Amino acid sequence: MTDERRPALPSPGGPLPGRAGLSRGGAAATASRLLRPGAVLLLTVSAVSYVAAVDPNEAGHYPTCPFLALTGFQCPGCGSMRTIHALARGHVQEAFGLNVLTMAMLPLLAFFWLRWARACALDRPVRTKVAHPALIWLLFGTVVAFWVVRNLPFGSFLAA
Fold first, then answer.
1. What's the helix, strand, coil split of the chain in %, to 5?
2. How far is CA 52 from its chain centroid?
3. What is the mean pLDDT of each run of 10 residues along the chain (160 residues)?
4. Which pLDDT score is estimated for 38?
5. What is the DSSP letter of 73?
6. Closest among 67, 69, 101, 66 to 83, alpha carbons compared
7. Which conformational region is residue 145 in: left (phi greater than 0), alpha (psi within -120 to 50 degrees), or beta?
8. Is 119 in contact with 94 (CB distance < 8 Å)?
9. How far apart are CA 64 and CA 78, in angstroms?
């Protein structure tokens, strides 16, 4: 009997031995895997650039929020476009005053995009479970509480 020593097979989705950082196929394959995250980034940069150039504070440039138009109350997203406009212009304090929830969500969205892009670059499976259900319910409750409080008289400081 011969003693054959075979290299261990890589785990599914894991990096191949001997390749630092890249898992399968080299730079071309990594670039191919980053097409979707790159497209989302390009779309985001394009949308932010458009909102930065076309002022949402001027009437007639964008449609009115349907919830605001129908009920007279602000939805959780009211002021988000003006917030993005202010951020793109470098007015961070003004952006916080327009929609603090949007400002709080931007780092969270950036985190999830980075996590997705990294998983694609390393050819790892993207987690389908975003977070523990309790955290998702907490986020949902925060959005609903923000929605209600910003429309009450004592929460007018949250109104856009």
1. 60, 0, 40
2. 18
3. 54 48 68 92 96 92 91 93 95 94 94 92 82 90 94 84
4. 94
5. S
6. 101
7. alpha
8. no
9. 9
Provide the token pair at 136: 């998702």
140-144, long-range: CB < 8 A, 24+ apart: 142/101, 143/76, 143/101
CA 93 to the chain's CA centroid? 21
CB atoms within 10 A of CB 81: 22
Collapsing DSSP states into helix, strand and coil, what is residue 91? coil
Q: Note whether 64 and 82 are within 8 A (CB).
A: no
C-alpha 95, offset from chain centre:
17
pTM confidence score:
0.74
Q: Is 45 exposed, middle or buried (0-12, 13-18, 19+ CB in 10 A)?
A: exposed
